[in-house]
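FAQ: What does the model actually see?

It sees only this:
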Amino acid sequence: MTSYKWAVRVVAFIVIAAVFLLLFAFLAVQTQQRMLRWRAQQLLTDMHQIRLYQTNWTDAQRLMSHWGPWGHSNGTCSAASCEYEITISNSPTHAWQTWLLAHDRFNLYQWFGGRYSAFQESFTVHNGAIWRQSTYIAVSVPTRKIRRENDFDWSLSIGAESYQRLHRTLKNWTPFIDDSDFQLAQHPYYKVGRPSGCMVNCEIGVAYYSTHTPQNEIENITSYDFSCFTRFSPCTRLEDLLPAAKEWHLYDNAYGPVPIADPPPPPCNTIPVWAQARDARYVLVIEALSANDVNGEKSNSEDQQAQKTARVLGSLKEAAPWQPGDTVNVGNRYVSQTALNGKGVEGMIPGKRYIIFPIGNDRRDQVVTRSSPLTFEQCGLREDTPEIRQELQKGFAQNDVFNP
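And it is asked to produce this:
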């Protein structure tokens, strides 16, 4: 009888100890996740106080001092130049987390509400003020399986970066963002995109926004839902992590057996000219020529008569390879009939002046020289009018000379 009571006590002790350990593990994981969530929310609040070109070096130092345990500078850091990054995450660094990973038991950690979570903010100081800013958030989507069986965790990641131009450049060579201007009809201050390969175990999105984006729009595209760090019912889509992403439809064609048709492109007159001027590298004034004006001689061949040519009158923005007085061909496969109110390059009237945003020297595959034809995106040709000129100046005013 005594042995029986002793055995019952041992079993009871083991059960109580197990319950205690489970409760302790649960509280430890929950405390970690909720502290991470709280810090991330505080960091985002601080970053929403930044005003590009206005927040000065003193304010930047205050941020660096406050977030020093989680931050570091990339290289030297001074009022003249500084790149600073702050990262808050729960990357596996403890011995017990490493053990769980090594033995394919990390999902036990996830059962208690643990998941990889990270939030990153960075800013760049130039000439005594903050000129650039970016944010990124990532979270894993836990599975209920005991073993992962060598499968990769599903993950969500989305971010936002400020740029003075929203076209891809040699310094900003990301395939995420489409160079077409159609997105500007809906939201002229930013563009969104995603990588083409991330559809099986992840969803990734990015928003590039102008350095002159109104603050309310910046906050809208960076209002991350940090409850994804602590929910027991995990976030599984990008719009869970960032509600604003629901309108971007980045992964509409990633689910379901029937692809969703892309919406038709908007009319060119719905795209703000100032936004195109901000993003373009070159902005030229050209005069359309008739076929008889090519090289000052009458064209006899049908091919020559079918060509659209123009004379370059000057550059309104950056110095371009094409020089005033050059006669160039205009239009190729990039040209769409949506330009010039549906008439495309065919609508160019000889003797009339136009504004053109030519493609070239932004990307490695778009190198142009003085002898290259003028090619443009689908809405990159506008009539030269006082109203258009005024809109161009609004766009030019949003550019700076730092890291194009």
